[in-house]
UniProtKB/TrEMBL annotation:
It comes from the Eukaryota. GO terms for biological process: positive regulation of transcription initiation by RNA polymerase II. Gene3D superfamilies: 2.20.70.10, 3.10.50.40. It is an enzyme of class 5 (isomerase). CDD domains: WW. It catalyses: [protein]-peptidylproline (omega=180) = [protein]-peptidylproline (omega=0). One of its GO terms (cellular component) is cytosol. This is Peptidyl-prolyl cis-trans isomerase. The keyword Isomerase applies. Pfam families: Rotamase (PF00639), WW (PF00397). GO terms for molecular function: peptidyl-prolyl cis-trans isomerase activity. PROSITE patterns: PPIC_PPIASE_2, WW_DOMAIN_1, WW_DOMAIN_2.
Amino acid sequence: MSSAETGLPEGWEVRRSNTKNLPYYFHAQTKDSRWEPPAGTDPDKLKAYMAANHSSKGVAPAAFAPTEGKIRCAHLLVKHRDSRRPASWREPKITRSVEEARSMIKEFQEKIRAYEEDPGQPNAQSLSELAMFESDCSSARKGGDLGFFGKGDMQKEFENAAFALEKGQVSEPVETASGVHLIQRLE
């Protein structure tokens, strides 16, 4: 795999972790490895390469055991400059407005709805596929999977929306101090 194909800087490659079954970035000469793409990466080329070669389809979710009163959700988070921590693995300094974050979430919501209607449609993507590349949460590398959580574990707005969902259902946009979310109840 060449850097022209992956969009990664020279010497970097994508590998898959044996323990987490997730892609990571490795530099053979320096032996440096990391979960986030290294500085100097072309995000559009990397996104295309990862979608073609490291799709979340078929990747086993994290092995979390359910517990009484807990649910399992995945989410896609778009932060904005007024978020409590306006930085992410994708952007060291987030400058978009809350309106821009809402607009992005609406676009992602349309892609997810299209996927639910017909996964073969152009631009149709599942929440987990979108989260891997678009979410500002570190859970992106797990397709947005947050594992199991109970009442009191999440911000109140997030918790209320998540516990109101049926299994498989995706929420309307939810705003918290972290940013704007789409939430999917997994279990």
